[in-house]
Predict the structure.
Amino acid sequence: MAITVVLDPRFKMTLINFSFPKIYQGFEVARNIDRVHDALYQHYNEYVVDYTSSNARQSASKSTEGSSSVGGNNSKFKTRGRMEFDQFVRNADNIQPAKLDLDVHLEESDFLCSDDSNLDLDFDALEWWKANNLKFCILSKMASDILSIPITTVASESAFSTGGRVIDVYRASLSTKIVQALLCGSDWVRPLYKTKKQSKVELGSTSITEIAIPFPK
């Protein structure tokens, strides 16, 4: 949850530093802030490894295609010379390592939507990362994976109710075990038998449908 907050450009570590002293006491404040920081970078480093490996495979594929398309000793010499130059650039002492986009994200000021509270409520962090994916190549992928929660909407009531897609108040209050039994039983019985509606009882504004499910003996 804390990492999700940090990936929101409106809050970042600022909200963590603001809220943790209100939640924890004494040395627990700094300890839990450090835990969030370490977990954030540990998770980010996993994406760095994946991103680097993916780029290396793409570069190797392009290099192979380029070498096979142009023949001759001259082309091989140019390829070898360019590789040596690239290695020289990597080993040059005056070349500063590129700053991690996670560091850039945390060092920049928090994103302010507007003084209008409605705009802040309508803010979509996923859209923000999508718009800034070129600036944050790795972090945007990590943010999209964490902030986008896969949701599978299944009309579970339709699995055991042929009367409609809306569960009445009685079925809505069934225990978990009963619901699971209905779902599993329905999946097992329906391929073998056809359900038949026997009777319908009207109780005020609530309709209760009784269904006979024949179980094999």
User: Anything to note?
Assistant: The longest strand covers residues 196-203.
